[in-house]
Amino acid sequence: MVFFTTIRKNYSYMNIPKTNLPRVVIVGGGFAGISLARQLANKNIQVVLLDRHNYHTFQPLLYQVATGGLEPDSIAYPIRKVLKEIPNFHFRLAKVTDIEPENQIINADIGYLKYDYLVLATGSKTNFFGNKEMEKNAMVMKTVPQSLNLRSLILENFEQALLTSDINERNALMNFVIVGGGPTGVELAGALAEIKNGILPKDYPDLDIRQMQINLIQGSDRLLDAMCKKSSEKAEAFLEKLGVSIWKNLRVTNYDGYTATTNTGVTFETSTLVWAAGVMGNMPDGIDGEEIIGRSNRIRVNEYSQVVGYKNIFAIGDIALMETEAYPNGFPMMVQPAMQQGDALGKNIVRMVRNKEMVPFKFKYKGSMATVGRNKAVVDLPSFTFQGVFAWFVWMFIHLFYLIGARNRMVVFINWVYNYVRFDREARIIIRPYKKNKAIAEVE
Amino acid sequence: MVFFTTIRKNYSYMNIPKTNLPRVVIVGGGFAGISLARQLANKNIQVVLLDRHNYHTFQPLLYQVATGGLEPDSIAYPIRKVLKEIPNFHFRLAKVTDIEPENQIINADIGYLKYDYLVLATGSKTNFFGNKEMEKNAMVMKTVPQSLNLRSLILENFEQALLTSDINERNALMNFVIVGGGPTGVELAGALAEIKNGILPKDYPDLDIRQMQINLIQGSDRLLDAMCKKSSEKAEAFLEKLGVSIWKNLRVTNYDGYTATTNTGVTFETSTLVWAAGVMGNMPDGIDGEEIIGRSNRIRVNEYSQVVGYKNIFAIGDIALMETEAYPNGFPMMVQPAMQQGDALGKNIVRMVRNKEMVPFKFKYKGSMATVGRNKAVVDLPSFTFQGVFAWFVWMFIHLFYLIGARNRMVVFINWVYNYVRFDREARIIIRPYKKNKAIAEVE
């Protein structure tokens, strides 16, 4: 049989039908890409969306997957299903390798494709600021598989801690270091603390779970430093009440898999260091030049989301760096600008196709929030701020609202109610063991 | 740091506390092992359960995980949680390597352990009857990771089918061959047919899904040949109505990854062959001798579940071969005998410890069932048999009843209602790609 070895030559053009419609190719099925695609429905435009996963990920809840509170399918949604109502829509599971702007071609592992309009919505990835040893040894939490690896490692640590009579080893196995005091770090630390208090003592009666340490390390002088001071203080108080050790003005400089060193003399012996201290644009090849690539590896775009120097290449979401007066360093890399840019660009592409004038993008900040634990959240709205039980309900309501799919909402809601009433997290199962220092999961 | 390299020497005795209580070591947390452990609660017995997974798997629903209807955590349950109410209970995540009956020691990857009573409840694994090429190329569905691999492969096939213009390749990608017409094969074939009819045409409007073929191959002259004839006939009629091609009196002799050959001239070109045509005992090393190992690699036990020749080694569930007048070849390898043997042995061990006489095991057959699709199931009870909508409700009720955990029941129930009302299966996400012919999943 030869046909499986000759696949590639048949993959030209990715089998996307040729039509007379203008073709918009979107790279990335995150919040920006999905919002954009929806705007292009029924506008006589052919929409092609490429993503390396066949699902959209609701990243704000990844930390609950990592801590056994939710399963992946509750926060992941098949992209084909989200967008199946759009006529002339085509999804392809593909890893984009590079772009040839001069030929209006995009290359991927499954072939190449001509575009009329290209939109880069490739999002962001973890930024290790060039530290390769850190990159090799730290856990991250930007994708579903990464979050599942973290879940496996946490559980494996406790299984291993049970077995050793070496006190140093046991301490390192039960010591968790989270680097980065933004929403991700705060929410993960809070969830770990709740597991420590509610679940682990029952699961591991042979272990002295009080020895478990959760260290949250922040480089600046307060947690959640993008939020207001009151929210920061309250979040710190919540975390301290849960038993999290907060380290401020401290920067982790290296981690060899066992010892984390910092810019002061402080060190941490830990088998689990989670790096949540920075993100950077997820840049495809073929985009270069200092005038294009800006801060945090993001692509400089104008107020129409056009990549500097190109009329028909756009960037939206985390990958896009739109420098405005209010946000001279670009918008924060979060869901709101991504969705709003996707919506706005969709309307602008329709205008462009119809030879109408485009409208400049205006970002409308709606607020930000973080949850620490049961009944404990902080919410900043543009006009006021509140913390505590009500903030926690608001946080839950907003997250349920933005989840895609009625079934996902129901399942997440039931899990939350169950976890709340029973102080439980039932998805603490190790489906695929995570081999530390080996980026390979054995299949059984 | 050296402590991580010197772990092993600290693992002796697996850190199980020494007490004056008799120690029962159970290998395997399936239906048999869990039922047994529960019987030993509050009986002044130390119970140690070893399993290579930290969860109990509800195997009868694995096919729904493979076809995107359910997520793993709905049918998997942390063993520590199931058994946490038992005093003097210890779980260890361990792969048992061998047994030294002469020293009353069991060896595992994490150390060794002395036992007073040893119970083997290691279940069964897929039986390829020695065909190594089949084993390398066929998909199986006995564990959660295996079922997730099958899910990934099914979805990957359709993504790939979209890309090729080679008609032979496309046909092979859309051709599914299921070998084995028992409950597993029948249920998987039915679920695939429902996906074909309800979901794929919407997800892949560019593909002609009518070309998708589902072939169910049975060696004997009827499907579900352990059930009554009426149920067989009805199951076949249901499957045919759904569009499944049924092949009877046909045996697949080999599969090289592309072509399946049979004992007649018939061949199938397929990229997905699922082998559900046989199981065999999952035998630990250190058990040998013709008088002990019987049919299907099972361990011969007497009516007290004692392994032939040993007073304090027992075997229950699929691994045990208890030859009785009614079942000269042992009980069927299914849930009922496993649970009943676990219960009975638990009571007998308590009797043994208290120097009372043990009671011989009596198997009570309660019936068997299989579901083909929505409103389509077949149920055999000892006294009568029925098929269709009512059988389907009975099937669902029984499965919900035997699922462990209130949250699992709720989540499964909601998924079933949703899937029923919406003709949907939403967990069609490829979390870890399955690389065909490479038993390694890349971690991203």
Helix/strand layout:
Two copies of one chain form a homodimer.
Chain A: E1 23-27, H1 31-39, E2 46-51, E3 55-57, H2 62-66, H3 72-75, E4 76-78, H4 79-82, E5 89-93, E6 96-100, E7 105-108, E8 111-114, E9 117-120, E10 124-126, H5 132-137, H6 144-163, H7 167-173, E11 175-179, H8 183-198, H9 200-203, E12 213-217, H10 229-242, E13 245-247, E14 252-255, E15 259-262, E16 267-269, E17 272-275, E18 279-281, E19 293-294, E20 298-300, E21 313-315, E22 320-321, H11 335-353, E23 368-373, E24 376-380, E25 385-388, H12 389-402, H13 406-422, E26 440-442
Parallel strand pairs in A: 1-2, 1-9, 2-5, 9-21, 11-12, 11-17, 12-13, 20-22
Antiparallel strand pairs in A: 3-4, 6-7, 7-8, 10-18, 14-15, 15-16, 19-20, 23-24, 24-25
Task: Explain the overall architecture.
The structure is a homodimer of 444-residue chains. Chain A has 444 residues and is an alpha/beta fold. Chain A is built from 13 helices and 26 strands. A 5-stranded parallel β-sheet of chain A has the order 5-2-1-9-21, with helices on one face. A 4-stranded parallel β-sheet of chain A has the order 13-12-11-17. A 3-stranded antiparallel β-sheet of chain A has the order 6-7-8, with no helix packed on it. In chain A, helix 1 runs parallel beside helix 11, helix 6 (144-163) runs antiparallel to helix 7 and helix 8 (183-198) runs parallel beside helix 10. Mean pLDDT of chain A is 92; it is low at 1-11 and 437-444. The interface between A and B is large, with 81 and 81 residues.
